């Protein structure tokens, strides 16, 4: 038996080639390739360029996409063909990088015409691009930015906006996109009508609906509210008759509230007080009525009657009182039963006597008379943002911690539970004390005058007083000026003063004293200075006590030189001076200097010689003088057999004495005599002896 049979052998298909690779999302890469003969499927492979990531995805044809990749990461992409016989070798690889992720947006609508978009920075993003489309429109609004904030303005209120966002990398490849929706806040609704239902003591409020609003809230000035969702009206109740109130309507949606509507004024019912002291009773018109009789009675016993064909009756109403109004309709058949009975309390009265006292530089006390109808009092000051400083039943209040040199507008407002607060009371002004000046510096003008410079923190014309006080002084030293400095005069030397400033104004009184500054005047000069010559080259200078001085500097100055001494004592020995020279003595006690002219002591004679005169009976003593010839000179010859003396007038350079003995040895002393008769005691003696007995020759000395 023979049978024909065939055997099918399948082989793997050819290796495909990649045409193009690209990334449209941050976690995938797409490959395009031509189909190859014999392939029934294809395998896309992705290997990370860095690391060990490896992934394969089976696809049926081109294009093929591999998922599960990382954002902004480079991969090596290859493709293989396959059939029942197996898979081909991988294609030549392509390198491709995934795109970056989308920004995570946060959106809000701060106003009814704006949207603000924010997001965290996206890694590797160089630019952010947005497409915004208004609900009901097909026209896109494109925006680009490199920031992480986008503001959209001039939008429609209560309208949804679709926002599509993408981040672009450094090659301007768009990354993942995210789409968000944000609605703007609704527009402000308008109050259309306010109707009072006197029988039910309720108020019906109508408003216009606005686009995009999900609900509405009505708020009155006395904090009553009502709400509605899709309706354009709501009821407020119960209401108290005779109250002037305002109300506003606010629209809401998921973005937030709109701006409140403009306040609408309405009267709750019955009696209307147009201004303090003038009231009106109002009522609805009644059919078949010829006239109305109105009776008004106050709690003070006064009554008022009104006959009118109108639906209003005005009457004088005293502040702080209660009234009952009764309206009776009349026609030819007579009066009807009581039509309306309304209680009304007028606003509390304003205090007619207010006394404001400045009790300290930063505290004022307010006291006022008790008024009718007031259950408590509020005290405010306009300069403190009208914050209520006192809310009490007492008629006294203190405002503290105020600013200096400030005019405060203070208002006392009486309040009652029924009528609220009387906002018509006038304000009263009070000026606080001036601010204290700050001493900036103190400069010395002369020996006993100092100028004090200080700040001027108050308004022009404020006077500033500077006071200097010291222990032991009977009266302080004071100067006053409206400028920024003034002079303290006659200050004693060697004294430590406490200097303090204060300000004064006619309307605010005296300020607190400023901080003290210390002023130490210069030390006093010695009253007496005594100069005594010790030797030809030394002088002793002494002086009396000087208040405030801790040390002294004494200087002797002349054209021939200078000598100086610094000591804490009251005397100083000066050396290196020249005899017979006019010196100027300067004494400096810390910072105070006193100048005294002084002539130093006379010079001792030089070149002293002794002669025997021709008559053999007299000896002549001759000398020279270095200093000015203004001194007498005394001559003393002392020997074994005689003590001889003579005196020469100023300018004379010799002196003769009687002496008949020969061969004697003498000690000779020639010294100047000071003006007070004192002989100079620092000149040196010289000894002379004769060589030839009783001859007229010069004697030699040693």
From TrEMBL:
Residues 101-191, 436-524 form the Fibronectin type-III domain. This is Fibronectin type-III domain-containing protein. SUPFAM superfamilies: Fibronectin type III (SSF49265). It comes from the Eukaryota. The lineage of its organism: Eukaryota, Metazoa, Chordata, Craniata, Vertebrata.
